[in-house]
Amino acid sequence: MTASVQVHRSAQEKLARSGNGYIGLGIAILLGLAAISLFMLENPLYAAPVLVLSLIAGAGLYMQQPNEARILTLFGQYTGTDRMEGLRWANPLALKRKISLRSRNLNTPTLKVNDKRGNPVEISVAVVWRVRNTAQAVFEVDSYDTYVNIQAEAALRHLAALYAYDDGEDLEPGETTLRAGQDEVAAALRTELGERFTAAGVEVVDAKLTHLAYAAEIAQVMLRRQQAEAIISARKRIVHGAVSMVEAALKALSEREVVVLDDERKAAMVSNLLVVLCSDKETQPVINTGTLYN
User: Fold this and answer.
1) Distance CA 274, CA 244 (A)
2) HSE-CB of 158 using CA atoms within 13 angstroms
3) Confidence (pLDDT) at 4
4) Contact status, residue 179 vs residue 98, Cβ threshold 8 Å
5) Which distant-in-sequence residues (6+ apart) come within 8 Å of 161 by Cβ?
6) CA–CA separation, 282 and 25 (whole Å)
7) What pTM does this model have?
8) pLDDT, tens digit, for every residue of 265-285?
9) What stretches of the chain adopt beta strand conformation (E)?
10) Contacts of 62 (CB under 8 A, 6+ apart)
């Protein structure tokens, strides 16, 4: 005996069979006037069915705003989606569920997550999204609003673990970080959100980080580390510039034959110039009143 396996098929949006509401309104009014005329002619046997038809025709009317849609279901079966705006008319027996197609903003709460190094960071994101496939949004998930909120938080947590907060010696040269590569991080976030939202028929319009900082328990330590790294980087630039200036000075003195220095005096001169150029405090000159070698 072979067991049958039911394969789930994703709901696909299709065009609903609906019409111009003004025509439906006109038919309902005409039927209503005809029912009144029959009552006035004292012919209720025909007036009652006509009045019922007028009410049924009026029950199929609905007003639809721009960037709205109606999901139509008949006895539990999806019959289509009406995206046309204005006064519309559809099967009076069909259930008509309104769904917004406008862009929406989601500002996630600040989450405490671990970055690639395992450091706790605080991060939040603003996501602009809208419904793309109305059938998937309504029939594939229980509540697409809740689905978007939960998946946005899950995507943010996963993304933060893929990048380090800031540069460091343990990273490859040019590696993207959360702090320095926010454009690349935002692009990766949009891609991941798009993949997660597809099942709910939702598309991502934009997504950007709105808050990024070290967690409070390590913020002061990391601040001192950043300051130390900045000082080291600045010192490297100062030393490199000083060496270049000393080299240029010695070369100019030698080419112009201003003074002839032996290796010992060159070393002393280099030492003095480096002290003057690299010191973070003002240096005091010592005037030699004797000869160069005294």
Assistant:
1) 10
2) 13
3) 43
4) no
5) 113, 114, 115, 116
6) 91
7) 0.69
8) 667 666 666 666 566 666 555
9) 19-20, 61-64, 68-74, 77-82, 86-89, 95-100, 104-107, 111-114, 120-131, 202-214
10) 21, 70, 87, 88, 89, 90, 96
